[in-house]
Description:
Number of domains: 2
Number of helices: 17
Number of strands: 18
GO biological process, one term: ribosome assembly
Enzyme class: hydrolase
Oligomer: single chain
Family: Belongs to the DEAD box helicase family.
Strand order of the largest sheet: 3-4-2-5-6-1-7
Domain DEAD-box RNA helicase Q: 1-29
Domain Helicase ATP-binding: 32-203
Largest sheet: 7 strands, parallel
Shape: globular
Amino acid sequence: MSFDSLGLSPHLLATIENAGYTQPTPIQSQAIPPIIKGADVLGAAQTGTGKTAAFVLPILERLGTGHQKKPRVLVLAPTRELAAQVAESVATYAGDTKLKHTVVFGGVGYQPQISAFKRGVDIVVATPGRLIDHLDEGRLDLSDLTTLVLDEADRMLDMGFIHDIKRVLKYLPKSRQTLLFSATFSKEIRKLAGSLLTDPVEIDVAPRNATAERVSHRAVLVEKSAKRAVLSHLIRSGDWSQVLVFTRTKHGANRLVKQLETDGITAAALHGNKSQNARTKALSGFKDGTVTALVATDIAARGIDIDGLPHVVNYELPNVAEDYVHRIGRTGRAGAAGEAISLVAKDERSYLKAIEKLIDQSVERMEVEGMDPEIIKAAAARDAEAAKNEPQQTPGNRGGRGGNKPSRRGGGNNSGGGDKPQNNPGNRGRRRSGSDGGANEAGHARPKRGNRRGGRRSGGGGNKPQS
């Protein structure tokens, strides 16, 4: 099947050809026609198989080439990085049309986003927190919206985001097209997604929770104290130039970066407590090769798209097996080969068994050759000594809880939000989500309109992507 058989206009076909694509992926060939016809779609496909283009291309086809001032399409994404990736895809395929788009997330100034709304945009790509800021203050009118997209829908519809999604839905027309795309869907998520869709076309181009065929899965059974030494040895002995490393917490990511740099390995952290500029710099350095190891948390890594990324390491296994699929989906993209290695301590072996059951395959156990036991002992001793000198963690600044909190449900670290409109004093409390502080990961800190409990306000308002 070719793109010209999917109902796309000559203009879009030329844009696709100029981008270097000749054949649609399975998710694209099955999703594009029903989306063009206006159907709701629930699409499940492996990460790296072209999910973004599967909804961007038919949406552009439906919009045509003419610009309207009010937004007609809203794409919600769980992280800034994923939102930026989708926006890049829109820019690529919209080509020289008159269609306008903007990307909206926290951690950056409000004013450029407000200015874009005033000029008029056809497509808004956003994370929920900052979008709700604008909607609550009347800066954005979505009354003409025709299409809503939830990207990485399993995370978006998880309990941490469902309240935000429901708030956004109140600002949208009831009659609209709704599209949900993700690499994984649990039974509960599929049921919840079904409540948002009308007679959806369900597309599942891969076995549920499957991983890319050309990714090798291996595990190293290792003492927790030896993990850093093993990781450094793998990077050096394998002459790795690019490896994405996952930790469970932000504090753990920061600590591992310092340890790797002690070992002479260039490293950077990517998580929600970093400012947007720091996140962009870390990701840019990783892409251009100046950073060898990018150490990331699960939420922040959504949307990372590196062509030909060869290695992913689970420094700590996720306690939710489905997150393993998302993690290793960063490698083996678009048919390329990749390697996923997990460093598994004794107390993580139950997680490994759950992962093997989910992906329906055994993860090969591997031995690390050439490791001197004395090096492991020395590294563990250095790490223990360094840990003694670290600042004592408090409930307000633990790495895994999204940063300092002014109150029990406070907005947390704004990560460089800057330039907030003057008519919005204070910070509104935010519900956390995910295992690593999803609110900050998605840029959710924002102005106050009263305290919230259980997802409601109480009281008065007060003063380049894989295509």
